[in-house]
Amino acid sequence: MAESKATLSIDGIVVADLPILSGSAGNDVIDIRTLGNYGYFTYDPGFLATASCESAITYIDGGKGILQHRGYPIDSLAKQANYLEVCYILLNGDAPTMTQYDEFVDIITNHTMVHEKLAHFFQGFLPDAHPMAMLCGVVGAMSSFYHSDLDIEDPVQRMRSAHRLIAKMPTISAMAYKYSIGQPFVYPRNELSYAENFLHMMFSVPAEEYVVSPTVARAMDRIFTLHADHEQNASTSTVRLAGSSGANPYACIAAGVASLWGPAHGGANEACLKMLEQIGTLDRVDEFVARAKDKSDSFRLMGFGHRVYKNFDPRATVMRETCHEVLKELGIKDPLLDVAMALEKVALEDPYFIEKKLYPNVDFYSGIILKAIGIPTNMFTVVFAMSRTVGWISHWDEMLGQAGQKIGRPRQNYIGEIDREFIPLNKR
Ligand code: CMC
After folding, report:
1. Rounded distance, CA 67 to CA 123, Å?
2. Domain that holds residue 237
């Protein structure tokens, strides 16, 4: 079949014939790499219509509410697989056999401890430091500990760093929490599952036995699964961009953590809960909905809207179910949940939100679940970062394994002064 081309004409004059590339699903893309030769660049701040890479990891159709990892639909994964199975799938491309799965769990379990000196890093933080600040710093510091993983040209070393990161993120995250509340760090326990182990490191204390609730562990695992990857979002693109310069994996993941922290991205779960607390009671819901619609007010309904999903967020559908299950099983009656449900109802019925296709996203429900299972609000984004680490490192590994990779280097539309005469300081 002849290759399709897009013809670019300016003022009626044909400037360039650009190849059109087709992936296995989703929109075709116009290959504009040669456009600079014709004296033009494209302008797309916020990457509204720009594909920055080829990837075989995650597919999203925002219009239809489809999310698939390596071709497996997210609701099947959330309901039939556990988080470590999903990690294996993201990293390796296919669902593992039982033997492969057991081996993988064994590898991750055996990498959960961190070097004692890494634990000393926490002493440099003030106890009221935000745990995301600690996570950024300590994850970056991992580069100074695991020298045997730093040859990014070697696929074996890349995979080893991926395993280390997936294994150690819960340990470091729980340490950030323990440090902030003045409790001793709790070491990982190898007989526990990934989710159980995180809860154990978060909530157990040396003075007494801690028994992990199966309901809570299941909910935690589902939260991890639903946050594992989301193709080229801001933090993943940040990791790719950092990695494109040849930076080491730990530095790249630290960059991802930083990018995730903002309230428009991973910080939305924390911001959503703070918003629910700010609204406080049912009678104030309308006031806040009105503020969200008022263009002179910068207030937005946190946990609503998504750049890609314009019908519903498939992660939110599963998370909503989990949210109700967890609250019922734990017998929790929280007035904030009533506020959340009222907000959800108003937003789903209000023409402003319908027209702009603003639906509750994954972070709307995950914040409520995390609160119900006792995770402190300032740890919400840390939980997201832990879960997303596998996505970040899978994309980083995919990029480095592809031939002909170039450093990421966008162009700009320069709008500043030019050719000014410089007058020395003593003459100005
Ligand atoms: N509340 C009120 N209005 C909103 C909201 C909101 N949450 N989100 C978007 N809008 C309006 C916005 O004012 C704009 O209106 P207009 O066209 O009249 O100027 C229109 O909807 C489009 O918004 P946008 O900011 O241009 O859309 P975007 O695709 O650039 O941003 C978003 C997507 C997620 C950053 C945005 O919807 C938002 O800020 N939501 C709240 C934060 C949030 O929940 N983020 C978590 C996303 S899911 C987790 C993740 O994957 O990171």
Report:
1. 41
2. 73-403
